[in-house]
Specification:
The structure is a homodimer. The first copy, chain A, is an alpha+beta fold. Chain A has a single domain, classed as 4-Layer Sandwich (Glutamine Phosphoribosylpyrophosphate, subunit 1, domain 1). Helix content of chain A is about 35%, strand content about 25%. Chain A has a five-stranded antiparallel β-sheet with strand order 10-1-2-11-12, with helices on one face. In chain A, helix 3 packs antiparallel against helix 4. The longest helix of chain A is centred in the middle third of the chain and has 20 residues. Chain A is globular and about 70 Å long. At the A-B interface, helix 3, helix 4 and helix 5 of A face helix 3, helix 4 and helix 5 of B. Chains A, B: This is Proteasome-type protease. Chains A, B: It comes from Acinetobacter haemolyticus CIP 64.3 = MTCC 9819.
């Protein structure tokens, strides 16, 4: 399984992906699912992947190949993020058609992809790309997308996240969303890849890998458990009509 | 969809079920999914149901019919909760075999059931009964079961719940688990049915129905959002290596 989450907020992008892949619980590996591309000062593109690893690796390799051999269209020839999403969607659709042309089990090979970034002179965008190649974009009403194992980490996002919150608040909120997911589903696992992009900065952030021993993540995970336990204690006692 | 949660703790049982059923988003109804049986001073049995409504209603009706017409075995002839779970499991399996004997779509008619209670002289028990008629029991290590839409409400249970916590703390924790689920999935809906049973009390609690206007539930839901927002603010700021 996988959990990827991407936020497109007023001030920038917050992107986090886990790295665990599994073919059964006895076959667990670490693979990067957050990929970055770009030209400093001109464009930043991030791609997060969930689903069949052969499929999503093929998509990333095709996109990288097009860049290496200057095949157009490619990620650096696209005029805006919409064209980037179109290219990613078409690549995903083509890869899936190649793989599944001889099989009925299309679902097993499927994948989904988040595409985020900004090209100079254009709006910063976040797209959720489906296996059919089509996609939707994040808005101020719905400023985030999740792919993979999204449910455990959704309540904190639904309660705390809003479009105009500062990026450091949003980053903490998303890290807590991951912590909740890690605790409830062993198929989502550390290390995490986290990345923050400031709007109009046009840099390619290196991002941070968060491992088992990461002191900051360990600290907020522990403090969050304490917050929840204390918060529950501070709720008013149930009224008497609960006890009849 | 449905969300039912049942806790078997040192001091007693906490059971909550939602009441929303849906055949598509344009066909939503209210049906009770928390059913109680018993003989004051002698036995208390609660059954929570998820899945196909025709299937689960049939199971409850068969169990009730056996009581009405004194067909044995029935819920009041069972010697302990294990025999109760066996009876519920066999009834569910038989109903499913009847319904699906002429169809391939077994999944669409399936259901799952939580059975909790205590019979005088015996341990209080909680069982998770599968469509195949078999079942598992809650333990001190894993003191709770969920059926239906369980994921959104699981993180708070995983963090805060433990076997020896007081029932009022456990009730608040479970109500928050429901509040998180209600916010993230419209197919789980108010009113909720909540019930607390004290070990060795052998009463049949009436329980409480929690509707849209319930002042206590509204209050803790609001306070919990505030707790989470404040808790996020109080987390230490992300370290500098997140911003590269």
């Amino acid at each position: 399984m996988t959990y990827c989450c991407a936020l497109r907020l007023e001030q920038g992008l917050v992107l986090i992906s886990d790295t665990r892949t599994n073919a059964g619980v006895d076959h667990i590996s670490v693979f990067r699912k957050l990929h970055t591309f770009g030209v400093v000062g001109e464009r930043f593109i991030a791609i997060q992947t969930a689903g069949n690893l052969a499929t999503t690796q093929a998509v990333i390799s095709h996109l990288q190949n097009a860049l290496n051999f200057n095949h157009e269209p490619n990620l650096y020839s696209a005029n805006n993020m919409f064209e980037v999403a179109e290219l990613v969607g078409k690549t995903l659709k083509t890869v899936l058609e190649d793989i599944t042309s001889n099989t009925q089990e299309q679902m097993n090979y499927s994948g989904s992809i988040l595409v985020a970034g900004q090209i100079k002179g254009e709006e910063m965008q976040l797209y959720n790309v489906y296996p059919q190649g089509n996609f939707i974009s994040a808005t101020t009403d719905t400023p985030y997308f999740q792919i993979g194992e999204s449910k455990y980490g959704k309540p904190i996002l639904d309660r705390a996240l809003h479009y105009d919150m500062p990026l450091d608040d949003a980053l903490r909120c998303t890290l807590i969303s991951f912590d909740s997911t890690l605790r409830s589903n062993v198929s989502v696992g550390l290390p995490l890849d986290a990345l923050v992009y400031y709007k109009d900065s046009f840099i390619i952030p290196k991002g941070k890998r968060i491992g088992e021993e990461d002191p900051y993540f360990t600290q907020i995970s522990k403090q969050w458990s304490e917050t929840l336990r204390r918060g529950l204690q501070e709720l008013p006692k149930p009224t008497e009509d609960y006890w009849v």
